[in-house]
Structures are given as C-alpha cells and as structure tokens.
Specification:
The complex is a heterodimer of chains A (403) and B (358).
Chain A lengths: L5 H15 L1 H4 L8 H6 L4 H24 L7 H17 L4 H23 L4 H22 L1 H4 L5 E2 L18 E2 L2 E2 L3 E6 L2 E6 H22 L1 H11 L1 H6 L5 H25 L2 E2 L6 H14 L6 H18 L2 H7 L5 H11 L7 H15 L3 H17 L6 H9 L5
Antiparallel strand pairs in A: 1-6, 2-3, 4-5
Helix pairs in contact in A: 1-9, 4-9, 4-12, 4-13, 4-14, 5-6, 5-12, 6-12, 9-10, 9-12, 13-14, 18-19
Chain B lengths: L1 H31 L6 H20 L1 E10 L5 E7 H6 L1 H9 L1 H4 L1 H18 L9 H23 L15 E3 H5 L7 E3 H23 L1 H11 L1 H6 L4 H23 L9 H16 L4 H18 L2 H10 L6 H7 L5 H12 L14
Antiparallel strand pairs in B: 1-2, 3-4
Helix pairs in contact in B: 1-9, 1-12, 1-13, 1-14, 2-6, 2-7, 2-12, 2-13, 6-12, 9-10, 9-12, 10-12, 13-14, 13-17
The chains are: A mainly alpha (403), B mainly alpha (358).
C-alpha cells in the first residue's frame, strides 16, 4: 500500500492514527481534576510542538541515522525557515502557502551552501563545522544582519508592512486560504474537553507526509546507498562511487525538513527570534533523535514527543506538588525525598534532561526503541508466545538501530 | 601604530583563555582520543572555584560592639571574618583581597579530582565507542554539570573582584617606548596573559623534559607499543586527563574577574575553543596555542570601531547594508576564519597527517 510493505504501512497507519486522534488521546483526565492539570497534554500549543519537533527529528534522522554524520547545527535551518516564513507574511500576506514554500526553498539553498563546505570533512570535524556554521548564523541573526532579522527584538509583522497580496477582509493571522491557524473547535464531553485546532492539524499533516517520505527514503536504493556510506565510506569510494552527491542530497533533504518545521513554527505564531538558532536548540534536536533511537523510523518522533511532554510536565512541578505526592509518608522522609527531587523539577528540568540523555547514551545507544526491543525480546522469551509482541518487536527488528 | 599594538594586546587575554582551553582539549584528544564536549564545563568549574574560595574566605562570625550603635539605636553588629581572627585584621584582609589567586590551592585539587573521576567513571567506557557517542555523552555531562552549578549558585553572574593591587591599568606605552599614556592596558589582563603563558610553558616543559612526559608522548604516538613495553599507559593517560582538566580550571579561575562566572560561561567558550582546536590542527599542541592567540587577536582587531570604520570608509560603504555587516563582523570573524582555513588547509595550521582524520 502506498509503495510500502505491510509492516511499514502498519507503522504509518499507527502514526497517522496517533497524530490525528492526539487531541483526544492526550487528554485522558477530566479538565478540572488534579491529574488533568498536571498530566493532560492535549492542548494545541503543546501538541503543535510535538509534531513540529517530531518533523524536525525525522529530518535529522535522515542525516544522522542513515549516514552517521552528526550535525550539531541543525537549528540553523529551523531558524532560517522561520525567518523566511515571517518575511513572506510581511511582504505578501498572511497566507501560509507562499510562506511554507519560501521556508523550504531558503532552507534548502542554505543547506546546499553549508553542506557543500561541511561535507568536505567527516567525523568530528563535520560536527564542529556544522556547529560553527550554526553559531555563525546565530550571531548573524542576532546582531550583524539586524536590518533583515530585527536583531534581539525578533522578527514580527507590523501594520505598516507592505503585504501586497493582502485584500480587505483577509484574516490578520496566518491562514490557509481563509482557514485561520489559531481557530479551533472545542468539544465538551462530560468533564472532558477536547480542542481541535486548525494549526495543529496542518502541522500534523505535514509531519505525516514527512514521515511517509522518510519511510520511502529509508527503503529506497538511495537510503541503502547512505547506509553503505555510513558503514564504510572508504570502500564506497574504492568501488568507484562518488559519495559526495549522495551525502549532499541527504544533508539538503534533512535541512529542508528543518525548514518546513521552522516555517510551521512561524505559521503557528508569526514571530521568530535568533534564539531558535542557538546551539542549545541544535543540541535539543540531537537529544530527541538519540533518546528515541537513531536510525529507526519511529524513534525520533517518539523522542521528540517524550522530551516535549516531559519538559511540559516536569517544568510545572513545584515543591508543593512534591509535598502533596509524598504526604502519606512520615514528615522526615517526605522532606528528604522532596529535597532530593526538587533540583530535578521545575526550573531544574534541564538537569533531568541531561541525566536522562546520559543514561540513554551510556546504557541504550539505540535509544528507547532498542530498549523496547530488548524488553520485548525478554518478554517473548519468557512467555514463549511471540505473538503478543510480534508487531513491536518485528518493526524494531527491521529498523536496525544505529550501532 | 599605538592602536595597532593595543589591539594585539586586547586580543591576548581572550586568546590566552582560548589557548588554555584548546590546549586541554588537545591533550585529551591526543592522549585518550576522546572528543570532550564537557571541557567548557571544566573551565566553568574553575571559575566557580574562585567564587567558592571567595565565599570561604568571607565566612564570618557576628560580633556585637556595645560601644557603637547602628541607625536604629541597637548595639552595632559587626561581621568579623574568621580569616581576620586567625591572621590578624591586616593580614586577614589581604588574604581576602587575594581570594582569586589563592583559589589556585582549591582549583588544582578539585580539578584533578574531577578530571580523574570523569575519566575513570565515564570516559573510560567510551574508548571503543564511536566518536559520535563520545560527543553525545560528554555533551550530556556538560548539561548536567552546568545545571548542578546553577542549582547551587543560581543563574545570575557572580561578581568576583580581583585583588585591589591589580585594579586599574598599566601604562604599557612607557615600557614599549611609545610615550606616556599611549597604550593603557588593564593590569589584570596582563596578569592573565603572563599566567597563561606560564601554564602553557609548564605544560610543554612537563611533556618535553620529564620522563613521565616522555612516556606520555610515546603513548600519544603509539599506545600499544608503549603498553607492550610494560608501562601502564592507562594510568598516565588518566593523569593527563586530570592535568587537562586543571589547565581548563585554572584558565576559568583566573578569568573570573574579567567575566563574572555564570553557569553557561563554559559553553560560550567551548564552541570557540573547538573552532580553535580545529584551526590549530587536531592533536597538535603548538597548533592549539598558536590558533588560540591568532583567533583571539583577530577577533579583537575586528571589534575595534576605528579599524572597522576605516575599513568601511575605504570601501565607501558608509550607511549601506554592507557597511552594517562589516561593522558586525567581529561576531562572526572567528567562524569565517575557521571555515576558510579548513577549506584551504583541511588539517588545520599545524595538523599532521593521520591524526584524527575522521
């Protein structure tokens, strides 16, 4: 179906189902309950982040997962894409079609230039070069190119911008031929509240298309070539193969994904700033891909979702909530546990992220997908019934983890 | 001419910091073959050692002085630092004043310990893993160290004053024969430069003239053979990691008065230090030092308004877009130089063939 084998098709269907039903699936608790306040994730702003970062991670995975080239500057493309989209809003109109096209094209051009330079080296040199380029783009956007990027203030649309295609009566928020991105339908069922937002569904559809393309790339001869480069580039060259064009193509495709993600971010909220290009942003993309499982199809999406979800919950926890959790314990134990956990929650979310990341890199180089696979194998060996986990283990087996 | 010399001097302090960090990075590359993204964090730990020393020396007890009253009419409460109790008021105050240089006694043991712990506890398990994994795990470690420091010291920069003897400027113009007041240079930056030069010289002398250093150099060239000769090279490399950590820590400690330490300071330096290492040639110690100073000086040249103004005037670009870009060039010049050098000399300035080629 759609040029996929049945297993990939099943995976794609699962992803489609999960993303489309996310507003319902991510709201398991009633809106006013205590659990709902801390654990519900089904509101549009957060779900948008899930799918946009998912798209970003899928694109990053095409480069790092297939070719093994670790780019530490991927956020540059994200930033360039956002800037291009906001400029289209400023110059033409709030319609997102030209904005998205511009962000893809600009990101692709940018990726061709950066890729051409960086791909002359491999290994750590490549990582450091991409990092240098991203930092340079950040410095350019932050101060040097202020006339274009509006410096630290960030680029946004002002009422005196030309907006030549704007007609009277057009919405003054990003829209798709009149369909406003931030308008939504709210569905109240009992105590539950489900919000279906146009912007989220647009991002979700982009993510699904991106995911589908990435499956096709993984299964194509082109993908095979990239894997061959990863396993032994020298041998590829000895067989008379010029690996450069393949690498550049992978780099540009990956950059285009980031460009789309950047364009989507601007479409959801038409302002952008240089901090999107900062190297911590690039680091975050790497963390997402690694956490989920590099080189697997579903891993990066999972990683992006998990990190954004944890960030959202953990940042919300404060010491009162912790005390509530441990209220059943004796006081000294309660205080001890709260004191231990407190640095990890709230503002200390990055500490949790760092620790989680290190644990995954040390113990699970293949990411959570590999962890699930190991667990699955353990489980099926114990119960001797391989049927129960056939789907998960099966998918994971075909998508060989990175190392 | 005067401003020319001043620009070179201005680049020296930043250049020395880059050179010290890059030297440590290169030591770790060269000996252990590990890409240490947590090296900036080590620099930061050094800076916070200075802060800690200042706080330790500032520990004080409260004394109630019955003869004086404060503005509310209560007996005046005075803070008397313990240091002043032990060494007398004059010597005690002097010790407090010199907190940053004295922090060396805290920094070296702490850094050796941190370096040893890092190598034995974490890096050791990553020798056989791909470079990407090494980058990732040290990157994670850098986040963790930064956040731990943030949890203890807060997120705001902490002012760390230098000894009062070094406040102000030195009139270098007189010494260089350029006339009184021609080149005024902040004293502490001069101290920083000489301090870094001393450390760099010490590291090179240690590697060049001691038996330990000779074995380490042999190990860098061919680890297996040295191992076969019955030398426990791992132990020495672990020590080298501690040494590299100390170099970064000392660089950070002495930099604290120039740039108030905060938890992200290491990352700001790390990215540039990597660029420095790559430009210098990976695995080449002299290359790291040379590139550190070169890039520091280049950056300072491009951040001089007079120099940039001259450049803009020369090209008749006043008020144009290109003129604005040139004015902001100091932000990106290091990266531009790095990219140009890597494209023309892929191994860096002094890189050798076959060292960290991929």
């Amino acid at each position: 179906m759609l040029g996929l084998n049945s297993r990939d098709f099943k995976l794609l269907m699962i992803v489609i189902f999960m993303t489309l039903a996310a507003p319902i699936l991510l709201n398991p608790f009633p809106v006013d309950s205590a659990l709902g306040e801390s654990f519900n994730a089904g509101y549009p702003a957060l779900m948008q982040r899930f799918v946009i970062f998912g798209l970003l991670a899928v694109g990053f995975n095409i480069l790092f997962g297939l070719t093994g080239y670790l780019s530490f500057g991927h956020a540059a493309f994200l930033g360039v894409g956002s800037y291009a989209a906001v400029w289209m809003f400023k110059l033409l109109s709030y319609n997102i079609v030209p904005a998205m096209l511009a962000s893809v094209i600009v990101a692709a051009l940018f990726a061709v230039v950066i890729g051409y330079v960086c791909l002359r080296r491999s290994g750590i040199y490549f990582s450091i070069l991409t990092l240098a380029f991203a930092q340079m783009s950040y410095a350019l956007a932050y101060s040097v190119l202020s006339p274009i990027t509006n410096g630290e203030t960030g680029l946004q649309v002002y009422s005196d911008d030309p907006q030549v295609l704007m007609r009277a009566g057009d919405p003054i928020v990003p829209h798709l031929f009149g369909l406003e991105m931030n308008s939504s339908v709210t569905w109240n069922v009992g105590g539950w509240q489900f919000v279906f937002q146009n912007g989220y569904y647009l991002s979700a559809i982009c993510m699904i298309i991106g995911f589908y393309i990435s499956i096709r790339i993984f299964r194509s001869p082109f993908g095979l070539m990239l894997r061959a480069i990863k396993s032994n580039q020298t041998r590829m060259s000895y067989t008379g193969m010029n690996t450069k064009p393949y690498m550049l193509a992978a780099f540009v495709i990956s950059g285009m994904y980031a460009g789309v993600a950047g364009g989507l971010m601007s479409a959801m909220d038409p302002l952008t700033g240089a901090e999107r290009m900062f190297w911590t942003a690039s680091g975050e993309i790497v963390v997402m891909a690694i956490l989920g499982g590099v080189g697997t199809l579903i891993g990066p999406v999972l990683g992006a979702g998990i990190i954004k979800y944890l960030e959202n919950i953990i940042s919300k926890i404060n010491s009162d909530i912790l005390h509530n959790w441990f209220a059943f314990m004796p006081d000294w134990m309660d205080n001890l546990l709260v004191n231990i956990l407190y640095p990890f929650v709230g503002k200390g979310w990055h500490l949790t992220l760092g620790v989680l990341f290190m644990v995954v890199v040390i113990f699970l180089p293949g990411g959570l997908v590999q962890g699930g696979q190991k667990l699955g194998a353990l489980f099926s060996r114990k119960s001797k019934s391989s049927n129960s986990d056939a789907t998960t283990a099966g998918t994971a087996n075909t998508n060989t983890p990175a190392e | 001419m005067d401003s020319f010399i001043l620009q070179i001097l201005n680049g020296l302090d930043k250049g020395s910091a880059y050179a010290l960090i890059a030297l440590g990075l290169t030591l770790i590359f060269g000996t252990l073959g590990v890409v240490n993204f947590a090296h900036g964090a080590l620099f930061m730990i050094g800076a916070f050692c200075a802060v800690t020393m200042q706080r330790i020396l500032g520990l004080s007890r409260t004394v109630v002085d019955e003869t004086q009253t404060d503005f509310l009419g209560n007996p005046l409460q005075m803070q008397v630092p313990y240091v002043q109790d032990w060494f007398g008021p004059v010597a005690g105050a002097a010790i407090q004043d010199w907190a940053v240089p004295l922090a060396i006694f805290l920094t070296i043991p702490v850094m050796l310990l941190v370096g040893w712990g890092m190598e034995r506890g974490l890096i050791k398990h990553f020798y056989k893993r791909p470079h990407a994994d090494q980058i990732l795990v040290t990157f994670g470690l850098a986040i963790v160290i930064g956040e731990i420091i943030k949890a203890f010291y807060g997120a705001n920069p902490i002012q760390t004053p230098m000894p009062s003897a070094f406040v102000g400027t030195v009139d270098l113009g007189r010494y260089l024969g350029l006339g009184e007041g021609a080149v005024a240079y902040p004293t502490w930056r001069l101290v920083y430069f000489f301090f870094s030069a001393a450390i760099i010289a010490a590291v090179f002398a240690f590697l060049q003239f001691t038996t330990f250093g000779m074995v380490v150099r042999a190990g860098m060239a061919d680890r297996e053979t040295v191992g076969m000769l019955g030398i426990d090279i791992d132990k020495r490399f672990t020590f080298m990691f501690g040494l590299a950590a100390s170099v970064a820590g000392l660089a950070g400690m002495m930099y604290a008065p120039i740039l108030s330490p905060h938890y992200n300071i290491g990352m700001d330096f790390l990215v540039l230090s990597f660029v420095v290492v790559v430009v210098g040639g990976m695995g080449s110690l002299p290359g790291a030092v040379l590139a550190g100073f070169l890039l520091g000086i280049t950056q300072s040249f491009f951040s001089n308004p007079a120099f940039k103004g001259y450049f803009v005037e020369l090209l008749r670009l006043e008020g144009t877009f290109a003129g604005t870009v040139i004015t902001g060039l100091d932000q990106i010049i290091i990266y531009l130089v790095a990219i140009i050098i890597l494209l023309t000399r892929p191994r860096g300035l002094l890189g050798r063939k076959g060292v960290m080629e991929d």
